[in-house]
Amino acid sequence: MACHTRSFSLPTRSHPFLQNAEEELNRLRACVGSSLTYEIMLDALKAVDHVYESINELLSMSSNLNGHSHMQHRRWLEQELKDSVNLLDMCSTSRDNLDTIRYHVQDLELANRRGDLEAIKSKLRDYNLIVKKANRDVKIQMFNKNESSEGESLAVVSLLLETREITISMLQSIFIYLSQQIVSQKSSKWSLVSRLSEKGTISCKVDAACLRVNVEELENGVESLFRHLIKCRVSLLNIFSL
Asked: Per UniProt, what is one Pfam family of this protein (predicted)?
């Protein structure tokens, strides 16, 4: 009795979903490596979401196609599943760290309202420590890139690889940005969160509230990214089960 093995076939570079994803990637490439502002980071997180939406559509279509079984494709898929877990862990840790940072900023905001100079100094130290930890966590969880040796017909493979690389860069940029929002009291620059005069009085109290809102929106952006990564992994698992 003949046994027919069901396998997968991935869309080519000319597919509209792939073209849409690459257009978003072109926008993201211009951001990576540059000094990102808060607004640019939010837009970049949304753009990464759009790329993963397109990737998920492509993978979902692939899971319904029959084709010739390629061991090379299977090896790539196995590696991609491993890397997707690493990226999910990195995104989850970043989300948790942003949640912790938000609570520290809320405490700082309360200390600012009370005019408690010592509490402000303590909360500033706490903020700096957790942001440094978050940045370190991203670096620790970085993994080797899965280099693709696939041909033109597997353009979605290189798309996944580059999107993952950009996603990691974005997570790093978030904590680099947050680390720059509070400067050392020894610096000639004013702190964003609380400006202390020579007499110890506190001004610019609203800045802590602004920073809290920024952290909340970045946290929401990372949460949305996490959900898209989950969907992408489910699509990969569906293909792997063929």
From this structure: BPS1
Q: What is the pTM of this model?
A: 0.79
User: What is 213-239 written as a DSSP string?
Assistant: HHHHHHHHHHHHHHHHHHHHHHHHHHH
- 82-98: pLDDT as tens digits: 889 999 999 999 999 99
CB atoms within 10 A of CB 89: 13
- Sign of the C-alpha dihedral computed for residues 99, 135, 84 and 15 taken in this order: positive
In whole angstroms, give the CA distance from residue 202 to residue 143. Answer: 44
DSSP-based three-state secondary structure for 180 = coil
- d(Cα 52, Cα 156) in Å, to the nearest integer? 11
Which tens digit of pLDDT belongs to each residue from 49-83?
A: 999 998 888 887 764 444 434 555 677 788 888 88
Alpha-carbon gap, residue 223 to 218, rounded angstroms: 9
Q: Which 8-state DSSP code applies to residue 14?
A: T
Q: How far apart are CA 100 and CA 98, in angstroms?
A: 5
Tell me the residue type at 192.
L
Decide: 104 and 123 in contact? Cβ < 8 Å: yes
117 neighbors 202 (Cβ within 8 angstroms): yes
In order of 51, 53, 58, the CA distances from 65 in angstroms are 22, 19, 11
Q: Does residue 108 contact residue 120 with C-beta atoms inside 8 Å?
A: yes
Buried b / exposed e along 135-161 (16+ C-beta atoms within 10 A): bebbeebeeeebebebeeebbbbebbb
